[in-house]
Design a protein that fits this description.
Length: 254
């Protein structure tokens, strides 16, 4: 996409997306793809406050923080369109999926130290290799495989959950990731056509917004399931009547 104003960050060295570059500022390459990460940061911050206030396990605090780091990395990437910043976006994406895999599978993992050690070493090795090699389509395939590894466990949690509101969290998780993926594909496949439209539907920015909401639903559903495992009597309640979160009642012995 051709630049409209001077570029503060220099020539594009990363993957470019279907939004005209530097249309509103010489400091922000893709304006909508940058600001569309803000909802993810705000939702993750709300989830982090809830996790800390109710003293959930530290894994959930780390999970919400990882969502914020990922969103900030994505903002830097789309604001600059530089390869280094793209790596700063993609590497946390993989780390976050490894964290999801740990949270999903750790309750039934008999060798408690083996799994986190393996995932940590895997994440560190990926970061080193990714800093040296530009994967392209290989990164997308790798990330998709990590996502698919989470689905069987999420489905198991869903079918063993009887709470109607918690099941709705899982359904909304599935709906947002499905619609978001369609927006991402539409933006990539039809980019040449979209560039001639009077109004760009900003499919990639919509992907950011929907995935930020999706991550929050996923985190909230996992917090509910984990609280059930710990016997904390979880309930899904709503802040301001629309934003769901998990409220727990821990036994006094805990």
């Amino acid at each position: 996409m051709a630049d409209e104003v001077s570029s503060f960050w220099g020539p594009v060295t990363s993957t470019d997306w279907c939004e005209r570059n530097y249309m509103r500022s010489s400091y922000v390459a893709e304006f909508f793809n940058t600001i569309s990460n803000i909802p993810c940061i705000l939702l993750a911050l709300f989830g982090l406050i809830n996790a800390l206030r109710q003293r959930f396990e530290k894994r959930f605090s780390v999970l919400h923080i990882s969502n914020m780091i990922l969103a900030i990395g994505s903002m830097m990437y789309h604001a600059t369109l530089q390869r280094l910043q793209q790596q700063g976006d993609e590497t946390p994406m993989v780390w976050e999926m490894l964290l999801y895999i740990y949270i999903l599978y750790s309750p039934d993992w008999h060798y408690r130290s083996t799994m986190p050690t393996f995932l940590f070493l895997y994440g560190a090795a990926f970061a080193v290799v990714h800093s040296l090699v530009r994967f392209g389509i290989g990164f997308k395939v790798h990330y998709m495989i990590l996502c698919l590894l989470c689905i069987p466990r999420m489905y198991k949690y869903y079918i063993h959950t009887t709470d109607v509101h918690a099941k709705w969290l899982a359904k909304l998780y599935l709906a947002t990731i499905s619609v978001g993926s369609l927006c991402w594909l539409f933006d990539r496949v039809f980019c040449k056509n979209i560039s001639y439209w009077y109004i760009n539907p900003q499919g990639h920015a919509l992907w950011h917004v929907l995935m930020g909401i999706n991550s929050y639903y996923a985190n909230t559903f996992l917090m509910f399931c984990r609280a059930q495992q710990r016997g904390w009597n979880p309930k899904v309640v709503h802040c301001l009547g629309f934003l769901p979160y998990v409220k727990i009642e821990k036994p006094k012995t805990q």
